[in-house]
Amino acid sequence: MSSAGVPADATGPLDALTDVAGLRVGHARLAGEGALSGTTVVLAPEGGAVAAVDVRGGGPGTRETDALDPRNLVQRVDAIVLTGGSAYGLDAASGVMAWLEERGRGVRVGPDPSQVVPVVPAACLFDLGRGGDWRARPDASTGRAAVEDAAGTEPGTPVAEGNVGAGTGALAGSLKGGVGTASVRLPSGITVGALAVVNAAGSVLDPRTGVLYGEYGAAEPPAYPAPEVHRAAQRRLTAAQDTEAAPPLNTTLAVVATDAGLTRAQAQKLAGTAHDGLARAVRPVHLLTDGDTVFALATGARQLDPHNPIALNELLAAAADALTRAIVKGVRAARTVDGGPGGKSHLSYGDLYRTHIRPERTEHDHPVPDSPTG
Questions:
Q1: Which is deepest, 38, 244, 288, 310, by most CB within 10 Å?
Q2: Is 192 within 8 Å of 257 (Cβ atoms)?
Q3: Is the pTM of this model over 0.85?
Q4: Beta 370-371 vs 24-30: how paired, if at all?
Q5: Is residue 182 within 8 Å of 1, Cβ to Cβ?
Q6: What is the pLDDT of residues 116-155, one digit of tens each?
Q7: H or E element: which one contains 38?
């Protein structure tokens, strides 16, 4: 079995977004004391991918999402940016744009092939001050470091999870959040993958049992922590809570992708249905203090059955399933971190329920570059 009880033969070989051929993922985090933030980039293959977005949180921070409306001009994009730093961090997309322009990738707007405007949709999450330094936030150099990290990997490379990239300072309710990824290989041979940055105002953990919400309803029943383990975990969480903290300003960001050929309208439906997977794993979601945003990418390497008018249905269901598992994996892979000067530690699920979980792939398996800023 893979994570969250999905049969191993139903996942891609990596159980990651990069099981969608041609997609690559890179991370960068801020360096320096007091910095707890970073950026994650999903890099499309040469020629880009059909893209869409569905924003359901009440407090989103986004860039270039209007360009993804199926009624508008842009057909394909070359990269998606997920970043910490709240609205300040959206500047990371500028570094990705510059990197793409240098390679002639983008919407051509002049007679010279170098005259392009890269369209780089981006969304941010709130992690300001979580490492202690309010001004430690991603910028253009962080975005460039992340896209260079993605470009430096081979297709089909495993994706680092946990406290990496945009997940560096992420929180999942009262727990440390982070980056997680998963994939589903359908009987048709089509692959659907998901990558999530779990930074939710809602909870990922059932306080009655210690089971992650995303594990309920999986292919096998969840393993329940021993009562004494759960009670000890709850005591530690209560002691670590910052009673003087402001209400949470969070956001869960995600990219779902497929190697199927989709229209822009179909891609938008894929992004929208994937939110169901978020709702299974986080309670509650889509609040006014969330900015929950899901992007969709379709590379077009495989075609849906033209004789089946509802062939898209299995992709829609798979995207929601993959996103639920990506959230579970992101929470499992996260590590406890120091909250910085004057702050309390952000405890991880793995630290609290150490005997209950298995290790996931983390940044120790895939070194993540530092941004030169911070």
A1: 38
A2: yes
A3: yes
A4: parallel
A5: no
A6: 999 999 999 999 998 889 999 999 999 999 999 999 999 8
A7: strand 38-43
